[in-house]
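Example A, followed by Example B.
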Amino acid sequence: MKNYKSEAEFLKDYNPDDFEKLSLTTDILIFSVSNENVDNYRKTDEKKMSILLVKRDNYPFKDKWCLPGGFVGIKEELDEAPKRILKQETNIDDIYLEQLYTFGNINRDPRMRVISTSYMALIDKNRLNKNLSKNASWFDIILYEEKNNYVDITLNNGTVSLSFTIQKVLREKTTDRYSFKIIKNENIAFDHPLVIVAGLERLRNKIGYTDIVFNMMSEYFTLGELQKTYETILGKKLLDPAFRRIIANKVVKTTKLKTGEGHRPSYLYKYKAKN
């Protein structure tokens, strides 16, 4: 290798064609936890967890479902790309997005070597003021079952049912970190089942030590509503003492009451934003 005396001298000789190229995409994983109305007015509305998918118009994977995603522009900031793509593919904008993971399996895209930086968000789909694009649809998570480090997930949008199986492989014993491998998948494009499982794991970990859940709560809510949201995300019931520990210092009680739904009036709470 030539020893250069200055950066200017190096750049004079530099030829970008001497290096192999790869492409960068971004995939956006949008979770929603929203009310599912029940017939009995004395019962609190149940919560459903959903994932936003789009149906592909073009090859590869034509007519299969995938997460909203696309290529990052050569002059586009990385964190701006998912906002643009989400708006183009779903008509959703102005929501909080955070980076999830980077997925870089060599064969994850049949067209070329593609690395994807994924993002995720947690919202309440019932509070969206805009209609979805025609190819976008919310799929409810109707099955999430983990046994012996195998995860089975089934998604359904009322017309289409999608199922896949992921194997969790312990990667680092000291940090309890796992890698994921697709065992069964027929109808979801690319490696997006991996993104979905990784996002669910991240979300379930984050709600215990962050305030991410309040991104999809109304300004005022009952503790019962908040607890059902936590339980829906975690996939399990929480004992009241455990729930109270999680939300300690995160909410403040107001003088407002929720009435008129067949229950005793309940005090409303609001998020206690950090200074």
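Example B, a separate protein, is given below in the same form.
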Amino acid sequence: MKKLAVGLYSGGLDSILAAKLIVDQGFYTILVKFMSPIFEERQVEIGDLNHILPSGYFSLRKIEMGEDYSLLLQSPKYGYGKNVNPCLDCKIFMMKKAGQILKEQEGSFVFTGEVVGQRPMSQRKDAMRIIERESGLNRHLLRPLSAQLLPPTIAEESGLINREALLNISGRSRKRQIELAQKFGISGYPGPGGGCLLTDVSFARRFKMILQEKNKVIQSDDLQLLKIGRHFMIRSGIRLIVGRNHSENQKILAFGKKSDWIFQVIGAPGPISLGRGNLETADFECAAAITARYSDAKAQEKIPVGFKLRKNSHQHILEVSPVHDEVLKNYKI
């Protein structure tokens, strides 16, 4: 076997430490970072890693999560966690991708920064065994931070990697990881949060709204839109997203589809809103009234609101009264 390993890299401290432990044993490591709108961007990137890992001993490969991952999100085999986080299925998906790279490169093992007992859904010992089995990485999946608490991998048994130089960290405390970071001179790493928006209560509530739509295939732009603005459900299947600032207004325009409706108050500063679904007359009026409520003209009795299809230059105009807050809360997600 080559002294080459493939590691899952999130940008968090645990994945940095895991990579450090493997590289320090003379392995060339391919660090794989999975990219998706639901993953919050971590701070530590390739430039920072050059100060932590020996030059020439690692490379960073980014993989965009595509439609196959979107299908997983909609129907995970092992279900969701507290919110809509399919942690086991997500880990299995990533391990399979990493395993493909390992096979192509004829490497020794895949490794991660997982710690026994740190996460309630995916880092119990039984869950870790499921991930290893389902990913097809039997005895080729190494968790350096907790290796001494787990059955040895083939690489450890063969002496390719020194098991005694690996660790026995467990639980939710970050004390030992922080001590190691100080020892290795690692700084500027992000906080301990998982970085997945599916664990966020507000995002999960919006995500569930999409899951309820019949025959809906979740796309990247759907996930991008869930991250921004104020969200409203006018009725089943009819959603409205209202920008909160200029940046969000621009993102709404960027991520909208040709079939989406764009609403904007005429003659006064205010948000850009995106209506999605088969809107009917009453829906247009409601969407316009909500848009007017968040404009600088909201004190006026009647406000002109323009609306058009996103890729259409022809604009319609409605004069509406801003929706009352008592009514607004019935629509808010």
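On Example B: The mean pLDDT is 92.
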